[in-house]
Structures are given as structure tokens and as C-alpha cells.
């Protein structure tokens, strides 16, 4: 039994020891914003509060309360703080005011004579205080879970105003019965509503956090949690896988995320670190499943470049005029170029942006003939990224290509001219497709109701960091 326990412990420790490819941090500024949103939510919750009709009895007196509802709410003060010891948040609402209305009816027997009365009643609650602890956990898998771990409410003062004919002794009797009952009723109802909201609506929204994102219908970006939520006195932090898989093949990759250095900046509400581990695993999955290959054929060229892969072009520039050996061997034909990755691309995030180097095999053929030239191509790209509408976009700013290890059946060919043919084809066809793919955008690990209105990206060696304030459903 002991050996089994130790084995399970080692497995658990190993599981949580995985480095994050993506990390998120909500600062105290973000918690303050969440406090404001929660304050508005509880105002609406109490304003629309409904309480079931009540029937009570005390001695010879029976009373009924019906049509119990909130008439107005005085906005409270509120504070939300991080509670490391509780692994959650503490939310305190003070100086709450609630005006409640109810219809009342009472029956009382004096000897054998029944006496009844009815009317309306306004109850003004003042100095209402609410304290709530919210736990932030995981659901046993990779999704976050919010739970109310305890709620308490206190009523500071209560002022009753009766409407309807009452004799003084009935008023005094009913006031005493009602005052204690309604205090307990409202105190319990407030906590019941808040607990239900946290464990229901709010928890459901948190569960909708993106922990998996499809890319190009072939890949999956795993944003699942790889460690418990970290809560300190200054921030709430989550750690995510950030690994990209082929959609139907989650084989492990040979990469490990770089360490994300500590950062003290807390001027924005939210920070998201994305390491180049995500890009590397995407490249690995793409290469190992044959995704990084392309056939550049004449039908792919448009406009002024439509004849560029011709072998014969007396009055223009084409493959045959750039490399005369092609025109001599294959006149009045068209060239097809097949490119396929030879290894996973090397992708690095640096302080200047994104660098990519891809080694690929290239094969030239003409018409229906066999290949007449092949070699290895080094394809280099430089680019950057931006964030819009909670999506991260890429863009290519520079590219170059260089062929080596050339094998030719048409004699010695100038490699500079081969590069020239490849460069134009890549510039006119392949790069626009890469940019189109990059501009498709990849969702960040947030929620549909969350907006990042002023996102900024800073590149560092091995990672990029997105800093932004947060906006919820248009709440300022």
C-alpha cells in the first residue's frame, strides 16, 4: 500500500512539474475591476429579489406575508481582495440599504372572539453587510471552477412602516413577530441568492474559458491548466499547456517551454505570456503530418505573373528565360515546383519579433516529364504579432530563400537563378497565403464576455507578453 501511495505521489508531482507554455496573471487592478462588476451584479440581484409567501403562528396569532419584493436598493461599498491562505477571493459588501414591501394579514383570538387585520408594510433595512469567500479551483481536469465557500450577512437596522388600520396592541404584537422573522428571512435570502449566483451563473461562465482552440481545422491549441491556480496578495495567476497538436494525434513533442522570467509590472489588469513553445509545437505537428508542403503550379499564378512558369517566352520573363537550360530541354512546356518541409521549422521569439527558418526539399519538373532539378531550400521569415478582438494575429515583414545541394539533369544551373524563380513564386503565391493564415487570428484563453480594449504586445527572447485592461459586457 505504501509503495502504491508513493508511486501516485510521484506521478502527481511530475504532472504539476510541467512548465507552462502560456501563463496568465490577473493583477489587483483587475480584481478591483471585478469588484465593480460584482457590485453592479449584486445590486441587480437584490433589486429583483423575490421571496416566497410566508405563514407563521405564535400563540393565538396567525399571520401571513405575501407579495414580498424589493422596492429599491441603496448602492453599497464593496471590496474584493485576494486571499492566499484560502486559495480564493474574499468579497465584502458594506453599508447596503434595502427597501422591501410586503402585504400582510393577521388573525388573533381574544377569548373566543377572532380579530383580523391586513394592510401593506414597508421595511427599510440599513447597514446591511455581506461577506463572501470564493474558492478558485480546478475541476479535476483542465478547467477552472469557482465555488462559494461561505457567505454571511448581517442586518444593521430595520425600520417598519405599516399601512392599514391597526389598533396599537395588534401593531406592537405584529411588529415584534415580523421584525425578527423578516431579518432572518432577508439575511438568509441574500446569501442564498449570492451563493446560487456564484455556484451557478458565474461558475458556468468561468467554465466557458477557452481551454482548447481549433486552428485551420487541422490543429488544436491546448490552453488547459497544468497546475493549480496561484493566488498571492498581489495577483491571481494561471498556468496553461500552450501546446499545439494535430487534431487527431496528440503525440508528445520534443520541446520544452522556456522559463518565463518574473515580472513586477502591474499597471494593467491582465498579462498573458505566450512562449515560442506554442509556435514550435505547431510547426512540429504541421511537419510530422505533411502539412508543410505546397505545389506551385502555373494555375496558381495570376495576372502579370500568369506565364512566369513557362519554359518558352520570347517577349517576357519566365522560367525558361531565367534558366535557358530549361527552355532548351523542355520547350513550350510549363514548370511545376513541389516544396515540402524536410524538418520541423525553427521558430524563435526575440526582442525584435518572430524569426522562422524552414528547411525544405524542392523538386522542379516540366510538363509530364520526370523531375529535372531538386535541392534543399532554406526559407527564412521574420514577422510580428498584434492583438485585436481577443485574437492574436501574425504578419510577415521579411522573407528570403536560398537553395543548396542542387541535383540537375539539365546540366549545371546557376543557383542564383534558381533562387530568383523560387523567390518570385513564393512572393506572389505562398507568402500571401501564409499572411492570410496568420491574419485568421487565434483566440486567446479568455471568455466570450471579456474584451481586451487596449492590448499591447512586447516581444522578449523566448516569449511575448500581452498586457491589457479588461472590459466585461461593455461595463466601464
From TrEMBL:
<dbReference type="InterPro" id="IPR032942">
    <property type="entry name" value="BPI/LBP/Plunc"/>
</dbReference>
<dbReference type="InterPro" id="IPR017942">
    <property type="entry name" value="Lipid-bd_serum_glycop_N"/>
</dbReference>
<feature type="domain" description="Lipid-binding serum glycoprotein N-terminal">
    <location>
        <begin position="25"/>
        <end position="249"/>
    </location>
</feature>
<protein>
    <submittedName>
        <fullName>Uncharacterized protein</fullName>
    </submittedName>
</protein>
<dbReference type="Pfam" id="PF01273">
    <property type="entry name" value="LBP_BPI_CETP"/>
</dbReference>
<dbReference type="Pfam" id="PF02886">
    <property type="entry name" value="LBP_BPI_CETP_C"/>
</dbReference>
<feature type="signal peptide">
    <location>
        <begin position="1"/>
        <end position="17"/>
    </location>
</feature>
<dbReference type="InterPro" id="IPR017943">
    <property type="entry name" value="Bactericidal_perm-incr_a/b_dom"/>
</dbReference>
<comment type="similarity">
    <text>Belongs to the BPI/LBP/Plunc superfamily. BPI/LBP family.</text>
</comment>
<dbReference type="InterPro" id="IPR001124">
    <property type="entry name" value="Lipid-bd_serum_glycop_C"/>
</dbReference>
<dbReference type="GO" id="GO:0008289">
    <property type="term" value="F:lipid binding"/>
</dbReference>
<keyword id="KW-0732">Signal</keyword>
<feature type="domain" description="Lipid-binding serum glycoprotein C-terminal">
    <location>
        <begin position="264"/>
        <end position="468"/>
    </location>
</feature>
<keyword id="KW-1015">Disulfide bond</keyword>
<dbReference type="GO" id="GO:0005615">
    <property type="term" value="C:extracellular space"/>
</dbReference>
